[in-house]
Design brief:
Number of strands: 2
Strand order of the largest sheet: 1-2
Helix content: 10-25%
Distance between the termini: 51 Å
Oligomer: single chain
Strand content: 5-15%
Structural class: alpha+beta
């Protein structure tokens, strides 16, 4: 995927005043980021893309690691996950006892 702020994927922002638009254009030009600014006085400001460029660590989503079938069970039993908690019912789910 193309990087945000590049020519192929510019940051897109919406502002309500010409002064704010110029401020964001200057900020992006100083950092060699490409930006498309929409001037919409009746809409709320949206500068999320520029914030993502300024603070990428705040917008990074990391997937939670889960145990693989043959990994030790995270419950600490010392048994493989597939023999321990893999087949246990989810919390709050009704248990079935082979009826």
């Amino acid at each position: 995927m193309t990087r945000l702020g590049s020519k192929k994927r510019p940051a897109i922002v919406r502002v309500s005043t010409q002064e704010r638009a110029q401020e964001l254009v200057d900020l992006c030009n100083d950092r060699d980021w490409h930006v498309v600014v929409g001037l919409e006085p009746d809409e709320p400001e949206d500068i999320t893309d520029v914030l993502k460029l300024l603070h990428p660590d705040r917008f990074t989503v990391r997937a939670e690691q889960t145990a693989g079938r043959n990994d030790p069970c995270p419950c600490g039993s010392g048994v493989k996950y597939k023999k321990c908690c893999l087949r246990s019912p989810a919390p709050g789910a009704p248990e079935s006892h082979g009826q």
